[in-house]
Design goal:
Layout (H helix, E strand, L loop, with lengths): L1 H15 L4 H18 L4 H11 L5 H25 L4 H7 E3 L6 H5 L4 E5 L5 H7 L7 E6 L5 H11 L5 E4 L3 H7 L5 E6 L11 E5 L2 E5 L2 H9 L3 E10 L2 E10 L9 H16 L23
Parallel strand pairs: 1-9, 2-5, 2-8, 3-4, 3-5
Antiparallel strand pairs: 6-7, 8-9
Helix pairs in contact: 1-8, 2-4, 3-4
Length: about 300
């Protein structure tokens, strides 16, 4: 089964490699109709997430926002697949980094950093292109797919422009092995933690929300300064990225403070243009354990 799934996706990716991106957007309209009208893909989840996050919006506002999300989501699916074979020059034209020089002083001091992002905008293009924008060695910390064949092949494609990858379980080892060279460790930090007992629970989008404790712990242990990146869609198929330092001295922070700073930045990003976040994700499926008191 894993072999079949891997073969089908590889075939799709290689097929997309010869189709211009503008032509793929024609397929996006068809995909939008199928997901939102025919199959109603996670429609209840999307609407519930939006309603709970924006209680001030009326029914028509939420319906329109849901529609915008599905349009973005369909474009994102096709762009992500196309991005695995997109030429370097075109990727750099479509995905612009506004202030990558923010990392230059750290590189001169041979100092590493931690960069936190989210499932907002087109993070897959960010994964591919970020190593082209900075002097640091870039190490992406990721959660492996259950399909090992597919996971291995996708990661091979993601490494095309210099990205290094390590699993969440091996993040500590990666830090130790690279302690003598300046690196940027990149984490998508808005994933729902499976370990809710050790999660950092915060008010986020009007809801009690668990966040991964790992990025906060990694930053406080290493002392590496922490940055946040925001991806904004300029127009269809074009994005801009800005970086912001959110914690220059992690060792001076208490547990959870860095997570709170990240959550604050992420909520501000989402409120600018809500449709570009991954609302189909069951972000609030877990509840705070009774032994973990409300702050």
């Amino acid at each position: 089964m894993q072999r079949t799934g891997s073969f089908l996706l590889k075939t799709l990716i290689l097929t997309f490699s010869v189709i211009p991106l503008q032509l793929l957007y024609s397929f996006s309209y068809v995909l939008f109709f199928c997901l939102s009208k025919v199959f109603r893909y996670r429609q209840k989840v999307v609407l519930a997430n939006l309603q709970n996050s924006f209680p001030e919006k009326n029914k028509n506002n939420l319906k329109n926002l849901s529609k915008q999300f599905y349009r973005h989501f369909c474009d994102l699916l096709l762009e992500s697949i196309k991005g695995l074979t997109l030429p370097k020059a075109e990727l750099q034209l479509r995905f612009i980094y506004k202030n990558p020089e923010i990392f230059a002083p750290l590189f001169e001091k041979k100092q590493s950093a931690i960069l936190l992002g989210s499932h907002y905008g087109n993070w897959e293009w960010g994964v591919l292109s970020f190593p082209l924008a900075v002097q640091h060695k870039v190490i992406g910390i990721f959660k492996p797919l259950k399909n090992r064949r597919l996971d291995s092949w996708l990661n091979y494609r993601r490494r095309r422009w210099g990205l290094h990858l390590t699993s969440m379980q091996q993040a500590g080892r990666a830090v130790i092995e690279n302690r003598n060279q300046p690196c940027i460790f990149v984490l998508i930090a808005d994933q729902t933690p499976s370990d809710v007992k050790n999660a950092h629970w915060l008010p986020f989008l009007n809801q009690d929300t668990p966040f991964l404790h790992g990025p906060d712990k990694l930053a406080r242990q290493t002392g590496y300064p922490v940055f946040y990146f925001e991806i904004q869609r300029v127009k269809r198929g074009f994005y801009e990225v800005t970086f912001e330092e959110i914690c220059p001295n992690p060792k001076e922070k208490k547990e959870g403070e860095i997570t709170a700073a990240f959550a604050h930045c992420l909520e501000a990003t989402i409120r600018k243009d809500p449709a570009n976040w991954l609302w189909s994700h069951r972000r609030w499926k877990r509840k705070r354990p009774a032994a973990n008191p409300q702050p």
